[in-house]
From TrEMBL:
Annotated ranges, domain FAD-binding: 3-325
Domain NADH:flavin oxidoreductase/NADH oxidase N-terminal: 406-733
Annotated protein name in UniProt: Bifunctional salicylyl-CoA 5-hydroxylase/oxidoreductase
InterPro entries: Aldolase_TIM, FAD-bd, FAD/NAD-bd_sf, OxRdtase_FMN_N, YqjM-like
Length: 770
C-alpha cells in the first residue's frame, strides 16, 4: 500500500514504523511541518502497561525508549504546609523531543520516508495514496476540511495552564498546591530526563485574570510562577520552550470527541489518529498513550484483515469500533481528573483536610479505586483508613482497620452503624396502599443483611398520589398499622435504622405495575392526574391538569398528615421525593414546569412549591430526626436541569432545614439520554456535598464494597445507597464486608454459623485462584 501520515508526532511515526515492520513493501511517508528532530514541549508520560504493549510490537523501539526514560513509582502531594507521599503507581517519563528522535531514527532505519518542513493543507496533495493518516494534531486541517464527515465536538475547558520546565530534579510525580490572594494554583511536576523536569502550572480563569496574567508576556508569567512555587523550586528557575507562541503562552485545554474517525475523499481512505481524533487531559497523562495505542490497533487490524487496498474499509471500521471503546474509557477518566482540577480550590483544597485531599486526588479519575490503592501501597492506604476511622469515632486497635463504608455516621439524633443504605425501590405489591407480608419479609430480610439504613419504597400521600395500584401509601390508619409492624421488626431484630420516603406521582401516576408495562397508563380505572403543567410523561400517556392553588394546599396537607403518621410509627428519617419527574420534581424542571405564575420561570420560583411542602413537613417532623431530599441532579435532556441547577436547589433545601441530599438523576423526561458508567451519578453528590456544605447520598451503579469505600473515603458522599444489588442479595453488606476481609461486622446471631462458613468458602476460593 501507499500510506501517507500527515503529522510527524508519536501517532504518525509509530504507525509508519509498525506498518513497515508488518510489510516492508509498503511505501510510507510521514510529512511534518517542523524541522528534522525539532519539537516543542517538555516531557510526556505514559504507563507501564503502554510500554508492555509496545514491547510486543516493536522490541527494538521499546528497548531504546526504555533506556532513555525515567521510571518512578511515587506520588508526592504538597498542600497547606504538608508533604505526603505514596508509592506503587508506575509511571514512565521521557522528553518529548527524545521520544520523537527515537521514533524518527527507527522510522528512517526501516525505510519510512520522512518529509520535514512541509505544511500540508489538503489530503488531495497525495492522490496516489491508498491510506492517509491524519495525525496532524488537535488543530487538524484534515479533520476541519471534512468536519461534516468526522463530526468533531470541540470544547475549550475553563482552566488556564502553562507548560514549563525546570532543571530541579524530582524523584516523584509531584503535585504542589498553592493558594494566592486570588485563588489556588497547582503544579504538575515530573522528571523526564536527567537534569530536567516538566512543570505545568494550572489555575482557574478567574485567578488567571485577577493576577493580570492575560496581560503579561512569557517572561512575566514565568517570574510569577517562580514566585508562587518558590518553596518547591528551591532557587531553581522555570523555563519555556514555547517561544513560538505569542503572548503569555497560557493555554486552555481543548476537549475533542469525534463522531466518526474515517472517510473516503474520492481517491484515498482517510483516518484520524491521536490528537486529531481525540484528546485526553494531561491530568492523567494519556495523550501520548492514546496516540501510540491508536497506531498499534490500526496495525493490528491490518494484520488481521490483510494489507490489500480492498481490505481498508473493513480495517478502518474494526479499528474505529475497537479504539472508540478504549478511548471513551480513557477520556471519561481524563474528564473526571480534569474536572477535579478545575474545581480543586473551591471544592477540595479549601474544605478537605490534607489526608482526605490526597486520597481524593489519587482517586480523581475514578479509575483507581480503594482496593487498587491497597495493591499499590498497602501501608499508605491502611494508614489512611485508620485516620478516617478515628475521625469518625472508631478507636484504633490492632485488628483490621474499619473500612470507610463501615464507619458510623451521625446526623441530628440519628446514629447509623455504617454508611450503606438500602435504596428506595418500588415493589408494586401493596393492596389499597397497605404493605403486607411481602413487605415485612422484603424489608426485614434486608434489615438483617447488614445495611446501616433502609428506606421504604416511595410511599404515597393519597390514593391519587400513587404511581400504580400496587404502590404503598400512608393516608390512613390501616396503612400506618401495617408499616408499624415492619418498623418494629426492623428495630427489634437488627441494628438497621429505617426511613420513609414520601412522594406523589403527579403526571407519572395511574400506570400499570412494572412487569405489566412500565409507565404505561392503566387499561381502565384511571384516576385524574395533576402536575406543575399539562405535560404528559409519555406522548401517549394520560394528560395531567396544572395544579390550582387549592390543589397545592390540599396536597401539601396530605404530605403533612403522612409525615405525622410516619413520626408516630417510629421511622428514623424522612425523605421527600423531589426527583424522577414525579409531582414535586415536575415543579423543579423547566421541561415540565411551563407555568407563568409565581411557581414557574426562575429557579427560585420553580422551587417555591416543593419548598412549601418541605417546610410544612419539617415543621411536624420531630426535631431530632433528620430529613433528606431526593433530587434529579441532571435531567439529561436539552433544556432541562443541569448539575448547576441541582446545586442551586440543594442550597435552597439546606436553608429550609434539609440535612441530606440524595443525589439521583434522570427519569424526568421520557426522551432523556443519560451518560451511564461506573459511579456515573457520584459526581453530583460530590459537587453538592463539597460546594454546598451538606451531607449527601450517592446512588447509581454502585455495586461493590470497593465502590462504596472509594466514594466515602474521598469525601464524595457521606452515604451510599445500593438498589439492585440488594434485590439480588439481601445480605449485600455482610457479604461485601467478608469479601474484603472484614470479620468484625456483626451478623444476626441466628446466622452466625453461616458467617463462618461463608468466610471459609471465600478463603478457599482465594487460595484456589492463587
Amino acid at each position: 500500500m501507499r500510506i501517507v501520515c500527515i503529522g510527524g508526532g508519536p501517532a504518525g511515526l509509530y504507525f509508519g514504523i509498525l506498518m513497515k515492520m508488518l510489510d516492508p513493501a509498503h511505501v510510507i511517508s510521514v510529512v511534518e511541518r517542523n524541522r528534522p528532530y525539532d519539537t516543542f514541549g517538555f516531557g510526556v508520560v505514559f504507563s507501564d502497561a503502554t510500554m508492555d504493549n509496545m514491547r510486543k510490537w516493536d522490541p527494538v523501539t521499546a528497548d531504546t525508549i526504555e533506556q532513555a526514560f525515567n521510571h518512578w513509582d511515587d506520588i508526592e502531594v504538597l498542600i497547606k504546609g504538608r508533604r505526603m507521599r505514596t508509592t506503587g503507581h508506575g509511571f514512565v517519563g521521557i522528553g518529548r523531543k527524545r521520544l520523537l528522535n527515537i521514533l524518527q531514527a527507527r522510522a528512517e532505519e526501516l525505510g519510512v520516508e520522512l518529509i520535514f518542513e512541509r505544511e500540508v493543507n489538503s489530503d488531495l496533495d497525495f492522490p496516489d495514496a491508498d491510506l492517509i493518516v491524519a495525525a496532524d494534531g488537535v488543530n487538524s486541517k484534515i479533520r476541519t476540511k471534512y468536519a461534516d464527515a468526522f463530526q468533531p465536538d470541540m470544547l475549550m475547558r475553563p482552566n488556564r495552564y502553562i507548560w514549563l520546565g525546570t532543571n530541579r530534579q524530582f524523584d516523584a510525580f509531584t503535585f504542589d498546591f498553592r493558594k494566592t490572594e486570588h485563588g489556588w494554583f497547582q503544579a504538575h511536576i515530573y522528571k523526564f530526563e536527567e537534569g530536567t523536569s516538566t512543570f505545568i502550572v494550572e489555575t482557574t480563569e478567574e485567578a488567571f485574570l485577577a493576577h493580570g496574567l492575560d496581560k503579561m508576556d512569557q517572561d512575566g508569567s514565568i517570574a510569577f510562577c517562580e514566585s508562587v512555587f518558590a518553596e518547591i523550586l528551591e532557587g531553581h528557575h522555570l523555563v519555556s520552550n514555547a517561544r513560538h507562541l505569542r503572548g503569555s503562552a497560557w493555554l486552555s485545554f481543548p476537549r475533542l470527541i469525534c463522531g466518526k474517525w474515517t472517510t473516503f475523499n474520492g481517491n484515498s481512505h482517510v483516518v484520524l489518529m491521536g490528537d486529531a481524533a481525540h484528546t485526553a487531559h494531561f491530568a492523567i497523562g494519556s495523550g501520548t498513550k492514546l496516540a501510540l495505542e491508536d497506531a498499534i490497533e490500526l496495525t493490528n487490524q491490518f494484520k488481521q484483515h490483510g494489507t490489500a487496498r480492498e481490505t481498508i474499509p473493513a480495517v478502518l471500521t474494526a479499528y474505529e469500533e475497537l479504539r472508540r471503546v478504549d478511548v471513551a474509557r480513557i477520556q471519561n477518566a481524563a474528564r473526571n481528573a480534569m474536572e477535579w482540577f478545575e474545581v480543586v480550590g473551591s471544592r477540595y483544597a479549601d474544605t478537605l483536610e490534607p489526608e482526605q485531599f490526597m486520597y481524593s486526588l489519587l482517586t480523581r479519575s475514578q479509575r483507581i479505586s480503594h482496593e487498587n490503592l491497597r495493591l499499590r501501597d498497602r501501608a499508605w492506604l491502611e494508614g489512611y483508613e485508620r485516620w478516617f476511622a478515628e475521625r469518625n469515632g472508631v478507636p484504633a486497635t490492632n485488628d483490621r482497620v474499619t473500612p470507610p463504608m463501615l464507619t458510623p455516621f451521625r446526623i441530628r439524633g440519628l446514629s447509623l452503624h455504617n454508611r450503606i443504605i438500602v435504596s428506595p425501590m418500588a415493589m408494586y405489591s401493596a393492596e389499597e396502599g397497605v404493605p403486607g407480608d411481602f413487605h415485612l419479609v422484603h424489608f426485614g430480610s434486608r434489615a438483617l443483611g447488614g445495611a446501616g439504613l433502609m428506606f421504604t419504597e416511595m410511599t404515597c400521600v393519597s390514593p391519587e398520589a400513587r404511581i400504580t395500584p400496587g404502590c404503598c401509601g400512608l393516608w390512613n390508619d390501616e396503612q400506618a398499622t401495617a408499616y408499624k409492624r415492619i418498623v418494629d421488626f426492623v428495630h427489634g431484630n437488627s441494628q438497621a435504622r429505617i426511613g420513609i420516603q414520601l412522594g406523589h406521582a403527579g403526571r407519572k401516576g395511574s400506570t400499570r405495575v412494572a412487569w405489566e408495562g412500565m409507565d404505561e397508563p392503566l387499561p381502565d380505572g384511571n384516576w385524574p392526574l395533576v402536575s406543575a403543567s399539562s405535560v404528559p410523561y409519555l406522548p401517549e400517556g394520560q394528560l395531567p391538569a396544572p395544579m390550582t392553588r387549592a390543589e397545592m394546599d390540599e396536597v401539601r396537607e396530605q404530605f403533612v398528615a403522612a409525615a405525622k403518621r410516619a413520626a408516630g410509627i417510629g421511622f428514623d428519617i424522612l425523605e421527600l421525593h423531589c426527583a424522577h419527574g414525579y409531582l414535586l420534581s415536575s415543579f423543579l424542571s423547566p421541561l415540565t414546569n411551563r407555568r407563568d405564575d409565581e411557581y414557574g420561570g426562575s429557579i427560585e420560583n420553580r422551587a417555591r412549591y416543593p419548598l412549601e411542602v418541605f417546610r410544612a413537613v419539617r415543621a411536624v417532623w420531630p426535631e431530632d430526626k433528620p430529613m433528606s431530599v431526593r433530587l434529579s441532579c441532571h435531567d439529561w435532556a436539552e433544556g432541562g436541569n443541569t448539575p448547576e441547577d441541582a446545586l442551586a436547589f440543594a442550597k435552597l433545601f439546606k436553608a429550609a432545614g434539609a440535612d441530606l441530599i440524595d443525589c439521583s438523576s434522570g427519569q424526568v423526561w421520557a426522551d432523556d439520554h443519560p451518560v451511564y458508567g461506573r459511579l456515573y451519578q457520584t459526581p453530583f453528590a460530590d459537587k453538592i456535598r463539597n460546594e454546598v456544605g451538606i451531607a449527601t447520598i450517592a446512588v447509581g451503579a454502585i455495586s461493590e464494597a470497593d465502590h462504596a469505600n472509594s466514594i466515602i473515603a474521598a469525601g464524595r458522599a457521606d452515604l451510599c445507597a445500593i438498589a439492585r444489588p440488594h434485590l439480588a442479595d439481601p445480605a449485600w453488606t455482610l457479604h461485601e464486608a467478608a469479601k474484603i476481609g472484614v470479620k468484625s461486622i456483626a451478623w444476626p446471631k441466628q446466622y452466625l454459623s453461616g458467617k463462618s462458613q461463608y468466610e471459609a468458602n471465600l478463603a478457599r476460593a482465594a487460595g484456589a485462584k492463587s
